[in-house]
Structures are given as C-alpha cells and as structure tokens.
Request: fold
Amino acid sequence: VTGALGDLRVLEVGDESGEYAGRLLAGLGADVVKLEPPDGAPSRRIGPFYEDVPHPDRSLHFWHYNVGKRSAVADLGGPEGRALLARLARRFDVVLASGAPAELAAHGVPGGLTRENPALIVVTITPFGLDGPWRDRPATDLTLMALGGAMAACGYGADTPPLACGGWQAYQTACVYAVQGLMGAVLARDRSGRGQAVEVSIHEAATSITEWHVPQYRFAGQVSPRAVLGLQFLSRDGVWVSTIVPEFFGEHVIPRLCEMLAPDGLDGPVRDAPPAERMGRIRAALEAYCARHDADAIYRAGQRQGLPWAPIRTQDENLDDGHLHDRGFWIPVRHPELGRDFLYAGAPFIMPAAPWRFVRRPPLLGEHTAEVLEEAESTG
Amino acid sequence: VTEGPLAGVRIVDLTRLGYGAEATQLCGAMGAEVLRVESRTRPDPIRMMPPFVPLPGEPPAGDVGLTAATVREKGFNRGGIFYKYNGGGKRSVTLNLKDPRGLDVLKRLVAKADVLTESFSAGALARMGLPYEELRRLRPDIIYVSMSGFGHRGRDAAHVTLGPTAQAITGLTYLLGLPGRRPAGWSFSYLDHMGGYLGAYAILAALHRRNRTGEGQHVDVSQIEPGIPLAGPAALDRQANGRRYRRGDTPPGNRSPEPPMAPHGAYRTAGPDEWVAIACRDDADWARLRGLIGGPAEEERFDAVAGRLVEEDALDRVVEEWTSRHERYALADRLTAAGVPAAPVQNARDRVERDPQLRARGYFVPLRHSETGEHPQERPPFRLTASDVHPGGRIRRGPPCIGEDTHEVLRSVLGMTDAEIDALGEAGVLA
Reply:
C-alpha cells in the first residue's frame, strides 16, 4: 500500500521555517529530498542531541522535523549551484523552498524553475510573502508571533510580557497552510497537467489563528485582553488541569457538574444564581474538588460526564497514553546505527486506505547525495 | 476568473463549532462547493455567540453577554465568531434530520457529493443512520472525513474536546508560560485552527488519492493528534536522554536557550501596554543592536551568546531600559533596517488598523453577508499563481444566513421542483 502522496517527488530547500511541511508530505508517502549545504542544514545544529553529544546526525530537533526524508548535499551558491537546482527540479514534482525572498531568488526560486518543467509546483514559504513593504525584513518565529496577534493575548496579564508559545508555532502554522496550498496545486495539476507557484506568508499564517479576536474588534470595538485561560486548577498530585465548563453544550451541563461537585459545596440553586455569583461558586468548588483528586482521575471523571476536561500534560507524557497507542499514533522508527527504535509522533489523522508512515529514519547528512544526483542525470 | 483548485468538488458539510468548520472553509476558498447542512431546532452554538454583528448603520454592540434574551433577539445570523470559520462561499441548507424525510434529503445529497465532513462526537453520525458503510452504499467513492475530539478509534474515543482541552493534552498549554509559574496557555483555541487545517489536508490528500485510484475512504481526524508534533522534540529527548520536559526550568517563556539566542523576548516600549519583540539570531545581530543601544550594552560579559544567556536578566534590563524610550513601530522600523529581527506586538486593532503589510497584500477582503451587509473576511495565507483562491469561494459571498440556500440547493443539486420543496417546507422537514 502506498501513501496518498506516493506519486509525489519533493525537493526541499531553504531554512528551518519550512521543514515541518516536508515532514507532513513524507508521512503521506511523498519522496522528500532535503537539499542541504555541505555543512548541513542549520537545524542539524539545534539541540537537544542524542546522548547530549552535539553532532549533525544527532540533533533531536532535526530528527523530529526531518524523519522520513532523504538528504543530498550540494553547494547552491553561485551559478553552478543554480544550474544544479534547475537540473534537479526537472525530475521533481514539487520544489518546497523556505527562507528570505532574496536568498530564494539567488537560487532561482520561484521564477526560473518552471521554465524547464511546466508541470513543476514551486512552493515558497517566506516571512512576509513575495511583495509588500515588509517583504525583506529580517524575521524569526518570535517576531512573526508578535505581529500575528497571538502574543498580545497570551500571558499572565498586563504586568508581565506578552508570551509566545515555544516550538515555532508561526513557522508550523505556515507549513500546515503550505501543504494545503500545495495540495490545491496538485489537484489542479491532476486536471490540467500544469504546475504553478504557491506563495505562503508566515506573517499572514500567524495572523489567522486568533479565533474571535478580529471579529471582536470589528464587530464590538473591543481588544481581547492578555490573560490566562480560565478554569485551570491544581490537582492533588501537582498537575494543573483544564476544567472548562461549556454551558452551550446544553442544559445538562450544570446539573451534572452539581452532581460531581456537591461534596465540594456546589448544589442545586447554583443554576438560578446571577452569572457572576454562579461562576464564583463553580470556581471555588472546582478548586476544592481538584485539590482532593489526582489529575488523571479528574480528567476521566469530567469526561465521563461529557465535559471537555484534560490534564495539562507535557508532550513527552503522551508517550504513556493508552488511547494514542491504540491509534498507532507513536510510530517506531529504526535507527540502525544506534541499534534501537525511537517512537516518533505520527499521523495527524488515520487514513486507513493509505496509512501514514515514515519509511526511513531522519537522514544522515548527505546520505543520499550520490543516488539523488544519479537519478537526476538519468532523466536529464 | 480562473477556476479554483477544487472546482467540481462538492462537500456535504455537517461540521459544527470551530475546528471542523475551519477545514471546510479552506476547501471552499479553494473552489469546492460546500453545502453546510444545519438545523434551526438544534442550531450550531457558534451561530449565537458574541460578539454580535451590527446591522448596517447600527453601532457596535459592545459586550452584551450570552443570555437567552440576546440569543432570541439576535437570532442565528449575527454571531460574529461564526463569520471567522464560515467563509469560503459556504451555502447553508437547513434539514430536520430527526425526520426521516430530512434524512432522506441528506442521503440524496451524499449521493451527489465527493466528500462528507462532520465533527460530531465519535459514532453520532452512525447512530443517526449514516455509518460509513451506508455512506459508501449511497456513493461508492465517498471521502468521509470525521473530525471528532479524540478520533473514532481507541479506548478514549468517547472523550470530547474544545480547543483548550486539546491544547492541554498535547503539551501546547504547558509550553506557553514562565518557568516556575502555572501554565499561562493559549487564551484562545489555537487547535481549532490547526486541527481544522490538518482536516483540510486530509480532505485534499484523500481527493488526490481518489484521482489516482478511484477509491474513497473514511479518514479519522482527531483534534489532539495534529497538535502533538507542534510541541517539538520533547518525546524524543525523553527516549534519547531520559529527560522529562516537566521540570523547574520549563517552559522558558520567550527566551531561547535552544537554539541559543539572546536577546530574545518582548520588551516594553513608550506606550501603555505596548511592546516590541526582538530576536538576535547570532552575535552579528547582537553587534548591530548593541551599536544602537550603546552604553551598558557594550559590556564585555555580553559579547558572546553563551555569556548573554548566563546574564540574560541583566541583558533584558539593558535592552528594555532602551526600548522603553521608543515608540514600538518606529523602533521596529529602525531595528529591521539595521538587520535585526524586530516587530511591534500587535493586537487585533493593530492588525486591522495599522499593519501596512497586511493592507498592501489585501489580507482583508470585503464580502457581503445577506443580513448584516459587507464585512472584511480574512484571506487564506497562500496564493496560487494559476488557480483561484478566494475567501468568498466561487460564489464570492460572505458567511451564509441559516437556511439561505436550502431552496436553491435542493432545486439545482437534487433537481427537485418548487412544489416538492414547498411541501417539505410546510411539513417542517426543512427547519
């Protein structure tokens, strides 16, 4: 069984902002070749490292974002590099390029590539897109999260700074959009046989993720304050638990909550209390309830009542989650040099007719250079 | 106008709230015909949530709260958050699915569809009489995309989520905060968006596979699995090094111990609650920044990034003492001109009123809503050079009023006569 994208050959070039897109394509079966400079992609130098020993082939950050890809080394600087990229692009369906527009242009991306291969799809992921007054501004994930609006609304209140979530969420949002735009181009090509360019702006991607904030300003003239998300309480075993109470789920929500929290002082009349008093009583009872129980028990008790509660876990704690194992979410990938398997975070969805998988561990630097160049020559 | 990349694709869409609706909105923006099947008797709660959209000529409502009275008064077409998730030229068809005749109309629509999407609790659609086997009987190559909280398979499939639930489980809530303090978390539903985008990716990939093989399938999307990889390599670090992420020095706030960058944070500027984000990627960025700051920034202990990370509290004080004397936009202009990544921390007002890049690129596109008039809708952040992508979809319209397109869809898609449609309406089937 081949993956849903088993017919796509993807050439990935550029900086760390686009790597998650390549991973999403590789998981669905695309042959993703990562073209790296002779000293390796910058992400190979980002820790943590396997056994805490820094080495281009031991970066766990690199592993996470590049599992399933092949690696070919080439010096893309200068006219020879440009010519090589153009020659390679003839045998690929997709070029996935990320970085500053000036750097991409120096490699002939996006312009030059489609002339020799009209079916080629060229995706660019750049901080601000390929035009506009901020096009060439230097940017990082942090500055793009600042512009996008998420930071202004996240943190502990006005006396502490706006906060960004770790893990490069602006880049990853742009990557998720990039694979959508790319798949749009693939579906168009399924009909027309012709490729096209897909342009993704990380700034716009980060702007799109703030839910009600833009409507709230446009329709009510209000700016959402910076605040901690409500209704989190500390469990007996020291874990914060998210215990939101979505009354819009239906009339049953408050009675069920009263049933659960009666020993902690919440009882019948709460439903008819004025909203502020009602929420105050619910908060107090939830706090007392959580202090008496462990996080996992709170999570499951709430869910049994149809309430969307959850423990505030760290990512690695999900390695112990039975449900995720039932779904085959953690995928064992063999690292033969190290003589062991590692579990990688896997499919974002279960697609049974074309399952997500990682056919190879993250590539060693330049591991596939010879075969990739050979493949390029054989068709060109 | 060129056609959209999904021209000719019809999606029968039973999604509700944010996460599912986001997926089909994107498909609509790419040219799919999205038929949003909904109900007046069991309405999607997002249709009634504030902020309420003013009618033409009416002033903004302010925060009126969510009470039964406001819901009665405002009806189904004024809930402002609905507008965020239901662009893409979606069309609204109201059907009473408790009535067998309503369910029959839905089945006839499925027979004419390429994709069926829903975001009910796991198993709910099957209990309504439409398990995957039945969908496949109606349309052999149907692509059925279910978008539940924890997915349809697995021991906790009955668990339910909203964005905050999924963020808590995945590690994304924990990742946002200051070390030694409670998690701050996202104050909104990031995973309604990201879960929705992965749902769209599922639809698109399944369509491409159908083009190659002729086969449909049931794709089982959950809201948590799209979020876990976004929290980085912590699970690998645990396996490789035995290190756990829950510890006293995590999360690092805005700081970047890995990759090592400093300064790296949000700093106060001259206005009230106004901030600038600055990220020095390397010592060269820092050399440019300290040249502008001068004085205390020139101290030797700040020369190399290793030293700056050790002295980061002092470093941040030096930077903020300087930034607090400047206006945030002018400061970001100056810093970026010098080659240092910097940006004002923008809220929604800033994005709508000030951001020159969004304006120059036409990020907000005015679209007409049939009851409340014209409002700007956000454009998908990708552009295709040879295919049409538009926030109003192929019909160039804003979010639909409830049931706005029932008659037209039953006529044009199912070939029903006006008399047949009116009879169903009078029988309460189209409510």
About this structure: Chain B has 17 helices and twelve strands. Chain B touches chain A through 164 residues (CB under 8 Å). The mean pLDDT of chain B is 96. Residues 190-213 of chain B form the longest helix (24 residues).
